[in-house]
Predict the structure.
Amino acid sequence: MGKYNFYTTNELKPRGWLKRQLEIQAEGLSGNLDKVWRDIKDSSWIGGDAEGWERVPYWLDGFIPLAYQLENEDMIKRAKKYIDAIIENQKKDGWICPCDEETRPTYDNWAVQLITKVLTVYYECSGDERIPEVIYKTLKNYYDLLKNGTITLFRWGQFRWFETFIALNFLKEKYNEEWIYDLTKILKEQGADYESFTELWKRPLNKWTFETHIVNLTMMLKYEAVSCDLLNVPYEDKAEKLISVLKEYNGNSFDSFNGDECLSGLSPIHGTELCAIVEQMYSYELLYAYTKDPKWAERLEVLAFNALPATVSDDMWAHQYDQLSNQVNCIKFPGKPIFTTNHEDAHLFGLEPNFGCCTANFNQGFPKFALSAFVYDDTSVISSVPVPSKLKTDDFEIELITEYPFENTFTYEIKSAKAFKFKVRIPSFAKNIKLDGKIIDKKDFITVDVKENSEITLNISYEAEPYFTDRPYDLKTVRCGSLIFALPVKYDKEIIEYEAKGVERKFPYCDYHYIGKTPWNYAYTSDSLKIEKKEVNEVPFSSENPALVIKTKGVKINWGLEEYYEHVCAKVPMERVPLGEEEEITLYPYGNAKLRMTEMPKIK
């Protein structure tokens, strides 16, 4: 199956608002986690006595591409320190994880799958020639232990078996030995069969299971794409079929699935785990690369511009474990939480709400997304996600100047020493598409033949119209292009400092209550949706100063609180009768609105 290839961090660099977002991430929790969080700072992966399983690999998976895209020498050195320690501690037989030999059978080997994926990321960024052999030894040992029955897939390793294929595809290109193909068959045979679980997704239970675990499911979406070549089976777009079931019974307003750790239905006051968002983004990135189907790039945009920024603080020192479509307070529950399978603090912005997996794993979201801006194949260079970036190879330079998604104008400045075909993906929602000022027919791609030793500038623009979409319970959501809009709820922030798990949680890496202080009990009353553009803020997804807003009309209604809760809006309004006069309301992009009402009724 032909596929797109990603450029390296040496070739592709962020620009404009995207670079600023990555700088905010580096200045926040991602760039400082190894200084403040014991599970990274004192991890068993580097000889300490703290967690020695998924958290260091998760963190490195985002920290490494972040460091190299920003060319931050200090971060690059700190990443190398961890990689050096991991390599130094690898056993002679190839085992790489920090556990004793006698405990290998009971050590969940999901960590093997994860660290080999991370090592491929490090190699692509650093070019460190030690890495291919390290991955080879690790996975050959993994194969030997699985083949002779010393270890088996169980728990997380069983449900994430396909993650190993990231490194196996890498090894196939380097070595292409028979045991690689044998290992793929063992993983497939021992791994979970997600197609057999779909009935469980249709009626979510207040019960924790691997089969309905939201992160497993968003990881799973790429399994066929990354494995079909090695398994020598035809690609059938099974991801689309599985997504259709998940969306029908658990879909939410920001094009992910409700799972506040496990699937939790269609309610706008149930949450979605942050790990699921970044893993769904990664699945879409690989689905687009392996299938070349533009629908995956468009879906990737929606998550990157909405769900990801909505669930991190403006300074990216704090994050939520769970975000809610309708979220009017983020205050710790004094009793039973609203979630089906998570704790009373899962929706707080903080260092480690609920569990620490998201603390480590959310770091991959923006850096990997930035590396999806341009891709290539044997015939073309493709602008796949049109965010501000500069691509520079030995043969050409392409700089994309844009503030997309906050506006829909794009300037491509191209200097080339060789001839090549350049393609720009045009999203399905685009209207009145113009190339250099002239309207062109609706297309999936604009294709330009770049001549040898040439310099050209392409100016592309299109329009996107705001509209209402239907949600369950006769509620509506507003969308425009790849942006979702919500009624923002202004809030006061309460700092919560304390010590837990050997970490002093102090500002800025502490917990926060976001206490809503403006009305949220509205219904839409007008079909009119008027976009007002502003400037992109120094904080691109600022909760105070969004780059654009939508003006419309609404009226207060008797919405009410969810039964037994004082800080949670009811799942559906108690009454849909106006309480006063119609008034103008201002909607923010979902990613800017940390507290918000995204799903609201529309009444006369």
Notes: The two ends are 52 Å apart (CA to CA). The longest strand covers residues 454-463. The chain has a mean pLDDT of 97. Residues 562 and 570 are 4 Å apart (CA to CA).
